[in-house]
Amino acid sequence: MGKIYLVRHGQTESNVNKKFQGLTDVPLNAIGLEQAEKVGKHLSQYSFAKIYSSPLTRAKTTAEAISKASGINIEVIDELKEFCFGEWEGLTWEEINERDPQDLEKFQHCPVECNIPGGESLEQVRVRSEFALNKILKEHPHGDVVIVAHGGTIRVMMAVLLGIDLNVFWKINIFNASTTTFSVMGRDLVLDYSNEDYYLK
After folding, report:
1. Of 28, 63, 80, 188, whose CA is between 20 and 30 Å from 177?
2. Which residues are identified as catalytic?
3. pLDDT of 39-67, one tens digit each?
């Protein structure tokens, strides 16, 4: 039975300040670098064939820590990048609420219907996330891979893999450097656990 490990990148200063990062290429902070090392050490006890990563620095740095601990190669896939938040990038929830309160309300409660100014729709993220998953599963039909991405992208991939409505987006917690694991069972992928981060403690 193969496994797919979905890993969110370590902490950044934008995470600490609750700013929307999106495609802004923010590096890990000191805590994030430590988290990356810890998730790398945690995953090194498992057997997997490849590490796939978003091209953004915060994800690639996390993937590199996993690669260093396990000796497994990394392949960067552009479609694993974070949600493009357009004009909201670099802003806090409070700042967005001041300028686009109706859009933010929709994004929080019915994100599928939200059109972020200059950003991506949730459906666009679903299409590219599903493309990335299909590419990975075609290369590794029995699993045993690590995918390093972002909170938004991982939420969408989970909805795709579970076959559930994308409007559950904000009902899924994905902490920094957490691991969400699916088992490959025949043609199905079954959720084993989500948002696990005990190894950071």
Report:
1. 188
2. 9, 82
3. 999 999 999 999 999 999 999 999 999 99
